[in-house]
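Researcher: Batch entry, complex prediction.
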Amino acid sequence: MGDSRGGCCPPMDLFRSEPMQLVQLIIPMESARLTVAYLGDLGLLQFKDLNSEKSPFQRTYAGQIKKCGEMARTLRFFKEQMLKAGLSPSATSVAQTDIDVDDLEVKLGELEAELIEMNANGEKLQRSYNELVEYKIVLKKAGDFFPSAQQSATAQRREMESNQMGEESIETPLLQEQETSTDLSKQVKLGFITGLVPRGKSMVFERILFRATRGNLFLKQVPIEAPVTDPVSGEKMEKNVFTVFYSGERAKNKILKICDAFGANRYPFSEDRGKQAVMISEVSGKISDLKSTIDAGKLHQDHLLRTIGDQFEQWNLKVKKEKLIHHTLNMLSLDVTKKCLVAEAWSPVFAKKQIQEALQRASVDSNSQVGAILQVLHTRELPPTYFRTNKFTAAFQEIVDAYGVAKYQEANPGVYTIVTFPFLFAVMFGDWGHGICLLLATLILIVREKKLSSQKLGDITEMTFGGRYVILMMSLFSIYAGFVYNECFSVALDLFGPSAYACRDLSCRDAYSIGLIKVRNTYPFGVDPAWHGSRTELPFLNSLKMKMSILLGVAQMNLGIILSYCNATFFGNCLNIWFQFIPQMIFLNSLFGYLSLLIILKWFTGSQADLYHIMIYMFLSPTDELGDNQLFQGQKTVQHVLLLLALVSVPWMLLPKPFLLKRQHENRQRGQSCTPVQVTDDTLHSEANHSHGHGHGHEEFEFGEVFVHQLIHTIEFVLGAVSNTASYLRLWALSLAHSQLSIVFYEKVLLLAWGYDNIVILVVGIIIFIFATVGVLLIMETLSAFLHALRLHWVEFQNKFYEGDGYKFYSFSFALIHDEGD
Amino acid sequence: MYGFEAMTFNIHGGYLEAIVRGHRAGLLTAADYNNLCQCETLDDIKMHLSATEYGPYLQNEPSPLHTTTIVEKCTLKLVDEYKHMLCQATEPLSTFLEYITYGHMIDNVVLIVTGTLHERDVQELLEKCHPLGMFDSIATLAVAQNMRELYRLVLVDTPLAPYFSECITSEYLDDMNIEIMRNTLYKAYLEDFYKFCQKLGGATAEIMSDLLAFEADRRAVNITINSIGTELTRDDRRKLYSNFGLLYPYGHEELAVCEDIDQVRGAMEKYPPYQSIFSKLSYGESQMLDKAFYEEEVKRLCLAFEQQFHYGVFFAYMRLREQEIRNLMWISECVAQNQKSRVHDSVVFIF
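Model: Structure tokens for the complex:
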């Protein structure tokens, strides 16, 4: 197929996808890793998975992948630690000699162990430090309220005691172990526990304590203002200092258990004020000691993390590459002798030399005795589609790919999309003021391209950034279209000289076109500004834009049909040329091509003929006299011929192709093809489907199915010719909507505010105008015009020729690692 | 009775139903299980799971893995999903979601109380508790000495409090008591849940009553089989059965007097839905009964997803995930202990 490149069209890189070939690589085991690494650097191969029936861990290199996963985990751990320490891995990592993977694994393991140990030590210290801090707080706080609390506790207990004396019957067995109430001095000896409890739990804590001791306790809580670090979890939380007074051993046990359950840390406390002061100073001393130890540890850890951070990116890349290499190696099948690996991969034809070089380099570098062997396989399988795009064409190709990836080597509409897409957009968005705004916005993106492409963007920004060159083209074209329409924020300016029209006399101040006479040459470029604001502005512009839309539509649809001819010659399919391309051309042009001709004629001659009338009565009563609607001599005869051609072309499209296909099939069946075998679309398709089981020439042929298929195609084309042409009228509709909307904002907001002669109203008016322009006209209208241009390309243009059932070429390349984030 | 759920359900429940159905799509499939069953080490399992929704939860685990880590992380995922749904839910869905966890709460209470009885460390016990059944003061359970204290100290604050009213005694706790307490609580819980679902009405009531009835019947059978040969009297046994379900009331009468497994079988085979379960088992066998019940349950739970606009999907999803985690635990254990031949004994495929 590659030899017949050219045909009707000059060779263009983007027009046909790269010729591909299936290559088989036989790589000796010992140099396999290096070879794949070099091929990954090259990035021009798409490996086929030859072990798809095996699960991931049954494959040859599962162990290595696991190792890579482990290393990646260690690296994530480092990153987490670095984030905790407030360090970021330096982007410009120190260029270091290439480190071996096994060495790297050992090194990472060592570093991790060191870091974990350091953390453990640090944690222990930190924990005791936090405990001491808490203790200090408890000592201070509790020291403040302890005496008063103790007093009230004692008082409460006495009171309770006296109550109990009165009601013996109540089943309160709690104070049984207490001596009888006669010995007051002994009773007052209350036990107490001090500590800290998280504030969120303090209510529940109090309640449970109350229930557990049946109210036989005194609890005092004081909140701590600043949150403290919990020694156990290491998190900052708000806490309360509490002191519980209780009596009796059993109550104490219960309270201790409850404290444990609530994560309340208990600290020893002394009743004696003197002792308290001693304890505080002791604790403070310990705290400062610990602090310096911890700081030293932190410094050491920081140092270690910094060394890790210097090489982090490099290691990360290395590990990712390694993982990718082994994933690829897993796709290769093991030779019977187990000495070499066999790979199958798609690659562009032009890359063969580079691949061979890479293979050679790999075998030299790995000291392998046998070099890797590359051979081209012949297959009937459809190769992947690969376009070599650059940053400018990529976005346009994306627009096409979003509809469907081109079949291998079929004509690529992306080439034309680069111009037609922004142009059709501009027809709908024609306003050079808005165009300049759009241009400035996208220029910002383009100027800051380098910076923006390296960082992660939000969803919408990402999309805009990806399509920056599309937007650039769109804005340039809409500036052009704006000049043609002569609109700048809906205001007409006479940039190209004065208007061709002037008033007949002084009385016509409203600038009605009736009252104007032509005084100069025609306005040199675009719409004459005199039309603006006149009563006939809308009818004039509507007629202009409507006709223009039809001309553009017919041109683009013709282009589509011509592209189907390019495909047919390229794939050597005569049937499609004779029974698809030619009748389609005739049908479309005899109806709508003729209409376009009439439009142009009418513009040139200035005739008043009614084109609707001509078109409609061309079908309804072809024999009638044209009368006023005659545009040229012999128009009636021409119309008769065209009508006849259109009528003939329908059965031409419908009938012969299925019968010819059937005959071709029968010929092939008999094994004596009269004509060289024509690989038509349909047979190619069925071969692709049956390539596994059936050999050549065994494909099924269902005449009924083919015929119905053809019938559907014909009906679709005939109806489509009408509806698609009508669909191009959206160009007019959107352009109208855009200009009317901008007129509304300009007149009803800006001019209205201007009229008030009040600075506040003016400012408010300007603000509203700016927001409306940006929000509605620049953003929403851009979106809607974009979508409509998209539709015109996908449906009206591409359905004439585009199959779009190919699949994309995904090369195995390390370059992609950088793109994907974590 | 059908309300017009289709009209109004999506106002509050639509988002969460979509979420839960999305979660369901992440359940492991038979192909996944086949791959998992072929694993040689726990690292293989981790590698396989890293390609599933469990990936983010397992990827940062250092390499010598343990079964408990895998199960813990998988449960964590379930808990995260549950918490997310609970946060988003409005009444009455939030109450419904809370009801789902009460079963775990009961199990946790029983676990802690039994553990303290055998003088195990509370922290250790807490780690074993199911995270869905945690409540604030759960650790305090260790303080209680008898049922009454248990109730008055801790449980009165929890949603389990109303279920406790039937089993408050001042008896000291022992294994038998606790087991009876568990079943009484479960009975009350199921009945309450059942009543709640009936109150919700519509498709929720219909589907949940089916699922809960199955649960109740399964518990009834388990109680019967476990109590054969113990000192539990027939009346006491009868009292532990929930008062709804397919077996209620006549099946319960029969189960209450059963003395061996074959009698249970005789009683159950009168009920067509359970006939198929028992027909899989040979006579005198009760080992495989659990699996058979689980399989039947999974089948029913999957069916709950066939209908829209009801809360049963949340219940079904939680249960299916739990089953999946049980499966993973079993597979991991088999792999870890080199008993791969037994892998298929207890794994219940969900799809």
